[in-house]
Amino acid sequence: MAGAIGAHRKLKTVETIAAQSPPQSPPQSAPPSHNNIKSTKPFFKNPKTPFAIRLFFADAIFVFLVICSTSYTKIDWDAYMSQVSGFLKGERDYRNLEGDTGPLVYPAGFLYVYSAIQFYTEGLVYKAQVLFVILYIINLAIILFIYVKTDVVPRWALCLLSLSKRVHSIFVLRLFNDGVAITVLHAALLLLMYQRWNLGLIVFSVAVSIKADMLLYAPPLLLLLLKAMNISGVLLALAGAALVQILLGLPFLVSYPVAYISRAFNLGRVFVHFWSVNFKFIPEPVFISKGFAIFLLAAHLTLLASFAHYRWFKHEGGLLKFLHSRYVSLRLRSGLLFSPSSKKFGKKSSSSSKVLTKEYIVTTMFVGNFIGIICARSLHYQFYSWYFFSLPHMLWITNYPTFLRLILFVGVEYCWNIYPSNNFSSALLLFLHLIILWGVWSAPPQNPYAEDKSSSEKEK
After folding, report:
1. What's CA 329's distance to the chain center, in Å?
2. Is residue 11 one of the residues assigned to a domain?
3. Phi and psi based region of residue 230 (left: phi greater than 0; alpha: psi -120 to 50; beta: remaining)
4. Does some domain include residue 458?
5. What is the pTM of this model?
């Protein structure tokens, strides 16, 4: 009995030392990025801000000219309005909500957003285009603010964010819900940059409710939560995001839950080979096969795990070591919860928490989503909006020369403007994606943590 008590005390002592030991300092060869220092400047005192504001107004004028001079392209708008009309008439079975392009495959948030659009526009396209111009301008303002605050790309390279013919078309000529979803996603990213994790998760969940494919951002977001919050905070944030999905989907969950979940969150859909922009060079029998889907899923998970272990958690010694330290900390916390020293331990654990840098948060989210883009079985033309706005950021964190960065950017844009896609354009797009990913992988690791002001003041 006494031996067992002694062993228990010994285990508790080892866990206490492990949990209370300070985090390892970053290697001397990888000092904090100078970008972290730049990003602390107030927005309106940043030398890039005047240029970003001029770019914002120039692009805003341009998109208004686009809808005045270019006719609307009829693709999904009529289908959206048909699906919304069925919902407004009282239909709650997702199997019966269809349009001329097929059944409804988006979560409930899509129906609420496009119901509001239908109410305002009365189903008229030109009124909807004005709304989507405003949406594009809002998204541009958010993304420019993110780029100015992270301070990764040079001032002139901000122009790249306004140079995509395809993205302008996706927003204001085709009125896809992808534009709505990515704008809400960027708003969530802005909140995450300022450590508003709970509210950011709620807004992120709203983006997912408009288009479930925004879940490509979920794996890197979960890893950021684990690094920025304790376990109870992570669970609370995830619960808030889940509650949003339940509340938005409640009319369908209480009536036809299986139909709703299977249709709205069917991430395993097999798309038509003809419309694939990224894997058109794959023979159609292979493209639609289950083996190809499993291969891409395995590649997706392997790339995420590799980036998490060797890149995103390199500061902590790798993903496995980080997760083990969290497990030890959680076990210690539960053991000391009712002990006399619980208050003292709580103060120590909270004071040792770190604030993630804006650059690190944005990079992790962008790269994590980009990995999902590379491994997606089929990319349709509107899907370009999912990652276009992240391209300059990812290109400028690589060690590539500026000339190569521009070639990669122009090459990706070229592939997305080939219609219909062909064997060459789809193979070239995959090749360019892999070059960009390799550049991100081989770049110097970013310091994830902002400087501790309290500790720096003590040193002074």
Report:
1. 28
2. no
3. beta
4. no
5. 0.86
Whether 47 maps to a domain, the answer reads yes
User: Do residues 63 and 133 touch, judged by C-beta distance below 8 A?
Assistant: yes
d(CA 50, CA 389): 20
Spatial neighbors of 274 by CB under 8 A, at least 6 apart, are: 420
Q: Which two tokens stand for residue 241?
A: 């995001």
The predicted model gives 207-213 an average pLDDT of: 97
What tokens appear for 293 in the block? Answer: 């889907």
Rg for the chain (alpha carbons), in Å?
24
Are the C-beta atoms of 127 and 113 separated by less than 8 Å?
Answer: no
Name the domain count of the chain: 1
266: containing domain: 38-449
For residue 28, name the pLDDT band (cuts at 50, 70, 90): very low
Return the half-sphere exposure (C-beta side, CA atoms, 13 A cut-off) of residue 215: 15
**How confident is the model over 102-133, as pLDDT tens digits?**
889 999 999 999 999 999 999 899 999 999 99
Tokens of 87: 């919902």
pLDDT at 41: 66
Residue at 30 is within a domain: no
Rounded Cα–Cα distance for residues 50 and 153 (Å): 15
Quote the tokens at residue 179: 């534009």
Question: CA triplet 422, 103, 73: central angle to 5 degrees?
Answer: 50
Return the C-alpha torsion angle 10, 16, 17, 20, nearest 10: 180
Q: Are 96 and 263 in contact (CB under 8 A)?
A: no
